[in-house]
Amino acid sequence: MAASGRWIGALRSLGRSLGQPARQQAADLSNTQRRHVGNLPVKPNSYVEDWAHKRENVELTFRFDAKTLAILGTAGIVTPYLIYQVCVTEFQTKQQKAGVPVKKYWGRDD
Amino acid sequence: MVSYLLPSLILLPLVGSVILFFVPSSSVKTIRVGGLLISSATFMLSLLAWVFFDPSSTKFQFVYEAPWLGTSNIYLILGIDGISLFFVVLSAFLIPLCLLAGWESIERQKEYVIAFLVLEALMIAVFCLLDLFLFYVFFESVLIPMFFIIGIFGSRERKIRAAYQFFLYTLLGSVLMLLGVLMIYSQTGTTQVELLYAAEFSEMAQIILWLSFFASFAVKVPMLPVHIWLPEAHVEAPTAGSVILAGILLKLGTYGFLRFSIPLFPDASLYFTPLVFTMSVIAVIYASLTTVRQVDLKKIIAYSSVAHMNFVTLGLFSLNPLGVEGSILLMLSHGLVSPGLFLCVGVMYDRYKTRLLRYYGGSVHTMPIFSAVFLFFTMGNISLPGTSSFVGEFMVLSGTFVSNPFICFLAATGMVLGAAYSLWLYNRVAFGAFKPHFISTYSDLNRREFYIFVPLIGAVLWMGIYPEVFLDEIHASVYNLLENFSRPPIDGSLVVDGKIS
């Protein structure tokens, strides 16, 4: 049993050494280029696939905790609020400088 | 004769799709060539509209009127002005390219070609319709063929989820718009756009109506935080689906702002300008940062589309001619560059059936023509001077600066981030290490693929080098649109008797 296992291993390594290395195969464009579109081989890699799956399905790993809530509060509420307030102030300051009546804006009816 | 031009533009692809319906599914060649001929003929007709268009007139041209629900004062009125002209041409321009993109990779050619021809007719109708109610009907009906294109011809099992997400998001927003349309109809007794332009709504009515329209258009653009459907739909759609989604469907939202929200509710538009500015600038920065961390080629371009489309809303709500014209130009530019990038991703996907960035690298050695084309569209995405995006973004930023320098400053950081993610994307696909342990067989662009890119490249360069051709047609309509905002045009031109003096 063990002997047959060794034989199979030896045959596999022989096959690998006889086969053209992938890098060389890729470089030899005259042999590998095809003229038409088709299913060209991609060797899927489990690490790449898992990594992409994690990135694509963030909702599966996302957890509400103090850190994520703080980030959500800062990025989703505080930052937009500050940008909005500065934006309105900018508009109203310009109107005051130009001597035209100051317009009302949503949330700032002063 | 000329008044039948727009009905012909809508009917030609519709009649073509009916004819192709009766062709047996086994006659693949007949269906493909037939679809291509019909869509090419439609494009030629749209060019006729451009040729005969009078750029000095602020009025709608090629107007066609027919009773639809005459008793209820709802008429089928078609017409185009400088704002809608190029969207009609762009819709007709992209469909033949979409059919060519799916020439070999799509199996059910009959359904594919029919879906795209129907979609073309609906899109052209949306841009030509001058009745608010019918605009709403066609605006929504565009969802149906697109739902099938994503759900049937999409790439993975997830496509069903993406199709539903696309459908429900856009439909939910639009329900509020329908209520707005009904409110307008009950107050004015008409839904004809030209009559509504003369109508005046109270301040409160304007605010309510503006919000109801905003709910629908913001989802279509898409603005934050209702953008989630877009990357999902792009990733699952076939290449041609992504092309039309980025090229035309996103513009339906910004076109809606331009055609309805801004001219019908000018006071509310001013009232909500800071809100739109804030949402847009956050979207520009957020989408650009999100793009950097994506691993899927299509998601990268989808998020970059979100950033660019929010640049467009910035320009629109700057409410000055420079910003609005820049927005229209940027929309047209995005309608060329983004499809080009999606077609580039499609070239890779057709070969390897994966869009994961990690598998690719070093294509500049193995696919030189593809890499050159991809570089060109990447530069377009960055808004390199000489490409169409540069002119649009420059005008949008100038218009926004006139309106609000602080917002312009924040938006300009989006351009820097745009350059970062675009170059990073190109670097990882075209340069970098060879990855023969993932992909060892390569194939450069074939003739069909190459010729799909040629017209797109030509159009991007034309618009980038000599944008005046396009701006000439837009000027009068934009000045007319902004009349309600009592801001004189920057160069001091005056509109007299519907003509620019």
Automatic annotation (TrEMBL), chain A:
Organism: Chloropicon roscoffensis
This protein's name: Uncharacterized protein
From TrEMBL, chain B:
First-level EC class: translocase
Membrane protein topology class: Multi-pass membrane protein
InterPro entries xref list: NADH_Q_OxRdtase_chainM/4 (IPR010227), NADH_UbQ_OxRdtase (IPR003918), ND/Mrp_TM (IPR001750)
Presence of the UniProt keyword Electron transport in the record: yes
Membrane spanning residue stretches: 6-23, 35-53, 73-100, 112-130, 136-154, 166-187, 207-230, 242-262, 268-289, 301-322, 328-349, 361-384, 404-426, 450-467
Compartments where found: Membrane; Mitochondrion membrane
Keyword set includes Electron transport: yes
Keyword terms, alphabetized: Electron transport, Membrane, Mitochondrion, NAD, Respiratory chain, Translocase, Transmembrane, Transmembrane helix, Transport, Ubiquinone
Sequence ranges assigned to domain NADH:quinone oxidoreductase/Mrp antiporter transmembrane in this UniProt record: 131-416
GO biological process, one term: electron transport coupled proton transport
EC number: 7.1.1.2
Reactions mediated catalytically: a ubiquinone + NADH + 5 H(+)(in) = a ubiquinol + NAD(+) + 4 H(+)(out)
One cellular component term from this protein's GO annotations in UniProt: mitochondrial membrane
Signal peptide start-end: none
Molecular function terms, GO-annotated: NADH dehydrogenase (ubiquinone) activity; NADH dehydrogenase activity; ubiquinone binding
Family stated for the protein in its record: Belongs to the complex I subunit 4 family.
Functional description taken from the UniProt entry: Core subunit of the mitochondrial membrane respiratory chain NADH dehydrogenase (Complex I) that is believed to belong to the minimal assembly required for catalysis. Complex I functions in the transfer of electrons from NADH to the respiratory chain. The immediate electron acceptor for the enzyme is believed to be ubiquinone. Core subunit of the mitochondrial membrane respiratory chain NADH dehydrogenase (Complex I) which catalyzes electron transfer from NADH through the respiratory chain, using ubiquinone as an electron acceptor. Essential for the catalytic activity and assembly of complex I.
PANTHER family, A to Z: NADH-UBIQUINONE OXIDOREDUCTASE CHAIN 4
Name of protein: NADH-ubiquinone oxidoreductase chain 4
Originating organism: Chloropicon roscoffensis
